[in-house]
Amino acid sequence: MARASREQSDKNREAIEQASSRLFRERGLNGVSVAELMADAGLTHGGFYGHFASKDALAAQACKRAFEESNTRWERRLARAEGDRKAMLANLVEPYLTAAHRANPGVGCAASALAVDVAREPAGKPVRQAYVEGLRTMVDGMAQTVDADDPQERHDEALVRMALLVGALTLARATDGDALSDDMLNAVRTRLLGSTG
């Protein structure tokens, strides 16, 4: 009986994490209540505190999970390029700077979807550390696309490329519905990949 109960508890926690990871990216950290998160997970509001001490603790775990999803996608895309740095960069940039990604923040990049909300959280909140750790991993992935021997040069270029990607997607979402949105995605894609990219 205890084993079945533990398995169900693990399934419930997984459902909460999955729902919160998506909903926080879609609506922001303060754009969704605990009751809404639990309902989306198919659970009652009362069961929340059996899994998480607070909404802050859940936000940190949801952020971590969202970055894990993003980083898993990036690892697959990098591996497909088989060490060709230009192909690696294209495999990251092409699916990132798209109308589909712009329209679906709930299943997209955590760095862009959560940036503004995390920036507004106080420095001591656990979600900030989860965000920093996740972003560092993405920067490390991006560094693999940089053709430079010097580690500092590779890191700096990776930061620039990440800032271009995340900034372009964030601004494209903010201007969706105006031609400026598509222009933003296209201009940054061209800047990163070249006119034939």
Short synopsis of the structure:
This protein has helices at residues 2-27, 34-40, 55-80, 85-96, 99-103, 110-120, 126-143, 151-174, 179-193.
Describe this structure in words.
The protein has a single domain (54-193), classed as Orthogonal Bundle (Tetracycline Repressor, domain 2), CATH 1.10.357. It is 73% helix and 0% strand. The protein has 9 helices and no strands. The protein starts with a helix and ends with a helix. The model has no long low-confidence stretch (mean pLDDT 93). Keywords: Coiled coil, DNA-binding, Repressor, Transcription, Transcription regulation. This is TetR family transcriptional regulator.
Helix content: over 70%
Question: Could you list the spans in which at least 5 consecutive residues all have pLDDT below 50?
Answer: none
The count of helical stretches stands at 9
Total number of strands = 0
The average pLDDT value, as a whole number, equals 93
> How much beta, percentage-wise?
under 5%
Instruction: Tell me the radius of gyration.
Output: 18 Å
Give the CATH topology: Tetracycline Repressor, domain 2
Structural class: mainly alpha
Oligomer: single chain
Helix and strand sequence: HHHHHHHHH
Major sheet description = none
Give me the CATH architecture, please. Answer: Orthogonal Bundle
Compute the number of structural domains. 1
Task: Categorize the overall geometry.
Answer: globular
Distance between the termini: 58 Å
Classified in CATH, the superfamily is: Tetracycline Repressor, domain 2
The CATH class label is Mainly Alpha
Protein name: TetR family transcriptional regulator
Organism: Cupriavidus necator (Alcaligenes eutrophus)
Coiled coil: 64-91
DNA-binding region: 33-52
